């Protein structure tokens, strides 16, 4: 069912300031940029992203990050999980590059279900 981790994302307060840190200080190269609000860095086949689009979240050293699982069918898996009583936090939606939705795990952590667009 789960094929691989699609991306890991950290919320940031100021994208420009965060980009300076990740690009200038750590030497990461941008691989995708969505409206200067979601910036991705491909690292050895994985992707790390920063964003100020995560409403209700804030940067915190003690809060952990988020994980996205690459799946075959976001909608089908969301419905299968919903039928099992799993809480759907964000209904599946499409972007220019993917389809994704968010569910809560048994502890209340957010899990992103993701599929790159064909």
Q: Could you explain the architecture of this structure?
A:
This protein has 2 helices and 8 strands, in the order βαββββαβββ. It has 118 residues and is an alpha+beta fold. The chain has one domain (4-116): Roll (2,3-Dihydroxybiphenyl 1,2-Dioxygenase, domain 1). The protein has an 8-stranded mixed beta sheet. The longest helix is centred in the first third of the chain and has 11 residues, at 15-25. The two termini are 18 Å apart. The mean pLDDT is 89.
- Please name the CATH topology: 2,3-Dihydroxybiphenyl 1,2-Dioxygenase, domain 1
Give the helix proportion (percent range). 10-25%
| CATH architecture identity | Roll
What's the arrangement of strands in the largest beta sheet?
A: 2-3-4-1-5-8-7-6
Structure keywords:
alpha+beta, 118 residues, 8 strands, eight-stranded mixed sheet, single chain, 2,3-Dihydroxybiphenyl 1,2-Dioxygenase, domain 1
Summary?
With 118 residues, this protein is α+β, with helices and mostly antiparallel strands. The chain has helices at residues 15-25, 74-83, and strands spanning 4-11, 32-34, 38-43, 46-51, 66-70, 88-94, 98-104, 110-116.
Give the topology.
Layout: E1 4-11, H1 15-25, E2 32-34, E3 38-43, E4 46-51, E5 66-70, H2 74-83, E6 88-94, E7 98-104, E8 110-116
Parallel strand pairs: 1-4, 5-8
Antiparallel strand pairs: 1-5, 2-3, 3-4, 6-7, 7-8
């Amino acid at each position: 069912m789960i094929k691989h981790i699609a991306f890991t994302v950290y919320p940031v307060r100021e994208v420009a300031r965060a980009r300076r840190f990740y690009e200038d200080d750590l030497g990461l190269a941008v691989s995708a940029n969505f409206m200067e609000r979601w910036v991705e860095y491909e690292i050895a086949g994985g992707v790390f992203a920063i964003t100020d689009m995560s409403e209700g979240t804030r940067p915190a050293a003690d809060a952990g990050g988020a994980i996205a699982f690459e799946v075959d069918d976001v909608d089908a898996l969301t419905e299968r999980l919903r039928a099992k009583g799993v809480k759907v936090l964000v209904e599946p939606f499409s972007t220019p590059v993917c389809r994704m939705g968010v569910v809560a795990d048994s502890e209340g952590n957010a899990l992103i279900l993701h599929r790159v667009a064909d």
